[in-house]
């Protein structure tokens, strides 16, 4: 199991504000890296068309307000993975956020997927920081 952690960001938003922002899947459009060619929200999942990879459907499969959101693919993908959004309170008006990907990869897939997955969550966390500023 490969675990990739984004950098941890701090924001002047409460954990509830951050949780509510991330719970609205349409907000993820602003967090996508440049290689995401299209983005749609349908029902309770997002559909991404990622250049060089193809379509990916992600849905929130678990959430614990206001501290955790877990997303998983809903379509067939070459390996199992999930994305955890962890939100920690610093005080009433400040919080820290980190994204974590857990991926079940063999060594060959790890060599090909580790950097793109790492870039994906780091781009998202960077853009989240900008959106919450």
Q: So how many helices?
A: 2
* Regions with little confidence, pLDDT below 50 for 5+ residues: none
- Average pLDDT: 94
State the distance separating the first and last CA atoms.
34 Å
Please compute the radius of gyration using only Cα atoms: 14 Å
Provide the succession of SSEs: EEHEEEEEEH
Instruction: Report the major sheet.
Output: 8 strands, antiparallel
**What general outline do the C-alpha atoms trace?**
globular
The helical percent reads 25-40%
Number of β-strand runs: 8
What is the strand content? 35-45%
Brief sketch in words of this structure:
Helices cover 26% and strands 44% of the residues. It contains 2 helices and 8 strands. The protein has helices at 15-23, 107-132, and strands at 2-5, 9-11, 36-42, 45-50, 54-64, 68-73, 81-91, 94-103.
Tell me what you see in this structure.
The chain is α+β, with helices and mostly antiparallel strands and 133 residues long. It is 26% helix and 44% strand. The protein is built from two helices and eight strands. It is globular.
